[in-house]
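pls design
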């Protein structure tokens, strides 16, 4: 079994293999071909301590398409509410025979702590990071990269994302998506630009990022891709208040703002969307430019590739 905890923990070869496999599964699903159940006999537990629609459902669908036995752990009705620690819950699931544990948790270090606990207890269960607080969401970054490669008709082994300029706008401080996408997109050769209000910008420029700015128009000037991020008010400090109307005016992905990008520029959003704040509906729903539903669809084949990596099959 193989853990998948962070983009930086993957080698370039592993990243290329995962993206190749994701794109291959995407073609297989679209063609309606038989997948032949390569994960038959694998027990997969999905343990989500935070609410999720796209990620939790796509991991469930991905596991079932591959023939795994998938169990969604009902955290709201579990012993967690009797005071059981995450460590004890993880070990309990491993003791019940979990081969793969897909874990989403809010605290920093929970993914690594779970991996260490499994190792110390002698379990071979693979941990897959389905989102860790504001610190990382590697499978979202992988599916976003696969979506872009499909849209631009590229391959991981050939040109990756080289030469593409990508602007990421929004709540960069609290976004695990931004953290993982910056790491992955930079390794794949993209020209990265980050834009947000000053209080939502990272304190230092992340590795591989070319521009960090508070100017939406500077960020969008001539870009190939514009990605909007949700304002994660649930993670704001008590004294951090941002007016939604003012945010849209200065940082929202509107048609006027998008006019600074290339005429062929694509639009992305990892969801869930706050329409009329970080992205307008006419942008999100533009069939010629929006890749948002393609991102959702790519979640299943990408997570299929991730689960096969975890199962080492």
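designed seq:
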């Amino acid at each position: 079994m193989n853990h998948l905890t962070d983009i930086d923990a993957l080698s370039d070869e592993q990243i290329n293999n995962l993206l190749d496999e994701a794109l291959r599964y995407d073609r297989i699903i679209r063609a309606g071909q038989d997948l032949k159940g390569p994960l038959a006999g694998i027990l997969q537990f999905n343990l989500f301590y935070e609410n999720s629609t796209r990620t939790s459902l796509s991991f469930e669908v991905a596991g079932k398409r591959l023939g795994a036995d998938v169990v969604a752990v009902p955290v709201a009705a579990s012993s967690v509410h009797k005071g059981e620690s995450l460590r004890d819950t993880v070990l309990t699931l491993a003791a019940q025979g979990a081969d793969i544990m897909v874990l989403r948790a809010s605290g920093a270090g929970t993914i690594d702590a779970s991996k260490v606990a499994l190792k110390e207890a002698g379990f071979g269960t693979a941990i897959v990071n389905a989102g860790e607080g504001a610190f990382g969401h590697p499978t979202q970054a992988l599916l976003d990269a696969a979506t872009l490669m499909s849209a631009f008709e590229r391959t991981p082994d050939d040109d990756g994302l080289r030469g593409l300029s990508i602007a990421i706008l929004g709540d960069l401080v609290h976004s695990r998506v931004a953290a993982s996408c910056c790491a992955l997109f930079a390794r794949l050769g993209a020209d990265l630009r980050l834009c947000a209000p000053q209080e939502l910008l990272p304190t230092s420029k992340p590795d591989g990022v070319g521009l960090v700015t508070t100017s939406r128009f500077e960020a969008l000037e001539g870009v190939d891709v514009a990605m909007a991020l949700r304002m994660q008010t649930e993670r704001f400090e008590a004294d951090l208040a941002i007016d939604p109307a003012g945010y849209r005016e200065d940082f929202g992905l509107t048609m006027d703002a998008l006019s600074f990008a290339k005429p062929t520029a694509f639009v992305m959003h990892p969801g869930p969307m706050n329409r009329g704040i970080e992205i307008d509906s006419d942008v999100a729903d533009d069939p010629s430019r929006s890749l948002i539903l393609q991102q959702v669809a790519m979640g299943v084949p990408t997570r299929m590739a991730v689960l096969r990596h975890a199962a080492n099959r």
